Each structure stands twice: as C-alpha cells, then as structure tokens.
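2024-03-11 09:14:02 INFO worker-7 job=invfold-0412 stage=load source=structure_tokens
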C-alpha cells in the first residue's frame, strides 16, 4: 500500500470496523462482564502479532477492533461508569489518554499540569503534548499533579475531562513521519467536579502504569509481527533475486543476516509469552515488560532495516510495505517509553534485587 500522509477517512474506518465485528474480532480484551470477550494478555499478544504483519491497519489505532477502555475506565463505577465507560463501550463516545507533556514525556514524574482542589471542584492548568486522537475524543483521561511534594509516589491523580469543558483547547497537531498527527492540549483554568477524579487522590500514576505495562506487551507482540512479515518477504526475495550468477540466498553474508533475524524474532516471541503469562497471573512483571519493549522494539526495527537492505532499491519504494513497517517500527523505540529510559528503570530493579 503506497504511503499517504492523510488520516483514515470515517468511511474507511467504518468499513474495517464492520469487517472486524463480522469476523468476531471485537472487544477482545474487554471483560465479559462488560460485554467483551475477556481475552487475557497471552491471547491478545497473538492478536497484536498477527495484525501487525499488515500496513492496511494503522499501527496505533487499536479502536478499529472495538473501543479500548484500558484499566482506568474499567475501574469506574456508578455515575462515572454510566457517563464515561458505558458510552465508550457502545461506541457513542471516544476517549484519549493525556499524560505526556512538553517537558515530561519519558519522565512522567516531572509533569507540571496541576489540579488544585477548590471546595467541591478541581481547577486544572497545564499542557499535554503528543496526545493521540485528542481531536476526535469526547473526553480525556488527564493525569495531573495534586500533591507536588509526593510526585509520582502518591501525588498524581487521574481526572475525566470532557473536551468541550471551558478552558480546554487543542492548540496544535504534530504531523509525524508515521502519517498520524497527535495533538497538543492546553488546560487553562479548567474547572471540573471532584466527582470526575478516578479513584482516590494520588492513585492516578499507579493506574496509568498498569496501562503502560500492558502496552509494553503490545509493543513486543507488534515487533514480532513486523519482523515476521519483513523476514518472510526477505526470504522470498533473496531466493529469487540473482546477483553475480546466483541467488542472494546462496551468499553466506545474506544467510547470516537471515539467521540472526530468525533467532532474534524467536527470542522475542518467548519473551512476550513469558511476560504476558505473568501479568495475566497477577504477578509483578515490571522487569519482564521493560525487557519486552526494549528488546522487542529494537529487534523489530533491526529486522525491518536488514530486510529493507536486502531488497536494495525496491525496498525504498512505496510499492512494498517495508518502508512503512520500517518507519512505524522506528517510532516505537521512542513512544510509550524510550528504550534508554526503560533500560535505566530495569537497571534500578536489578540493583534493588527486585527483578
């Protein structure tokens, strides 16, 4: 599919969603109690792996297979559930997750967005950047500092903020090399009821980390799908492409590249399965999820890069999906936790003996 810098049209989106429903790929990871299929991370990792083999489905739009409420919305009860979770699951509302800031991306504990309690309300001020689908969302799950002294250890809370609330403004859309355009949101004296806080004050960061842990499994699974597709293409191409009188596949240098790709892909599959099983069992799998994202994202890009190289000039064209897989996979080494930051987090766990 040739690459175009455009958003998916609503008609395209609706068509894919209808096909997903008809095929039974709908609300896969939503608990059965909420009308979903209740698939755990072990099952979802297989799904993410398979859909990541294609460029026909946007790399980041997981809502094509049903709303993605995430751990935060699934924890809602009472009026919050009726006003936010239920409409999302029915497809009547869309949401976005607003945590990243201009100076607090890889280091969310440094976020500056503040939510100050004023009687029965909170007043929110701050800026969020690179927020996916903010321009399409009906409400945002906003992470904000409620106790600067505690920081990430009990000082960050989560709030549900309707996007049409006075003071909420989308000020920019950042066109990326992957073809999407995440937004910048400014909160200027945004007043909301304390009833819009999720859970107790200070619990927001912990809830967000559970979501990010699941996301790291998705990163690893996606990397497997990308690497597998690229390797399949490289195997086929090198068997048929002849240089200097013989197929590329007969050259030892090419064979070693293919062997390395296959080995690294296999290792990542095992890492994904291990981490997913531990999270499904309710175990502390922080170290495993850090490793899955770091090793998986870098492996996916390495394999895509090697396979693109083996294709030569044709690999650089939009006639093949290699360049799109290559660009998307490169981006995942930065988003949702740069690999350098996760290496540091992993090292701290190892040094404490907590891994």
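2024-03-11 09:14:09 INFO worker-7 stage=emit residues=355
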């Amino acid at each position: 599919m040739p690459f175009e810098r455009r958003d998916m049209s609503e008609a395209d989106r609706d068509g894919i969603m209808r096909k997903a429903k008809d095929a039974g790929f709908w609300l896969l990871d939503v608990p059965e109690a909420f009308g979903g299929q209740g698939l755990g991370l072990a099952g979802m990792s297989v799904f993410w792996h398979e859909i990541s083999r294609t460029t026909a489905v946007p790399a980041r739009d997981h809502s094509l297979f049903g709303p993605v409420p995430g751990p935060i919305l699934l924890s809602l009860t009472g009026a919050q559930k009726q006003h936010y979770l239920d409409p999302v699951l029915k497809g009547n509302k869309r949401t976005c997750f607003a945590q990243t800031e201009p100076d607090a991306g890889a280091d969310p504990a440094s976020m500056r967005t503040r939510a100050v309690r004023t009687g029965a309300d909170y007043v929110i001020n701050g800026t969020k950047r690179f927020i996916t689908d903010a321009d399409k969302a009906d409400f945002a799950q906003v992470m904000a500092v409620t106790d600067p002294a505690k920081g990430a250890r009990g000082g960050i809370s989560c709030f549900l903020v309707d996007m049409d609330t006075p003071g909420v403004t989308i000020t920019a859309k950042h066109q990326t090399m992957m073809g999407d355009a995440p937004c910048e949101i400014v909160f200027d004296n945004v007043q909301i009821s304390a009833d819009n806080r999720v859970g107790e004050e200070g619990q927001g960061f912990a809830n967000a980390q559970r979501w990010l842990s699941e996301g790291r499994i998705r990163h690893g699974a996606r990397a497997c799908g990308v690497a597998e597709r690229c390797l399949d293409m490289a195997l086929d191409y090198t068997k048929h492409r002849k240089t200097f009188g013989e197929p590329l596949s007969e050259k030892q240098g090419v064979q070693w590249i293919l062997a390395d790709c296959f080995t690294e892909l296999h290792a990542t599959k095992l890492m994904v399965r291990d981490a997913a099983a531990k999270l499904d069992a309710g175990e502390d799998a922080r170290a495993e999820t850090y490793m899955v994202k770091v090793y998986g994202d870098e492996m996916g890009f390495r394999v895509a890069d090697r396979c693109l190289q083996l294709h030569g000039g044709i690999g650089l064209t939009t006639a093949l999906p290699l360049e799109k897989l290559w660009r998307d996979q490169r981006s995942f080494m930065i988003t949702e936790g740069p690999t350098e930051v996760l290496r540091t987090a992993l090292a701290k766990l190892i040094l404490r003996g907590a891994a």
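2024-03-11 09:14:09 INFO worker-7 stage=report msg="Residues 10-89 form one domain."
2024-03-11 09:14:10 INFO worker-7 job finished
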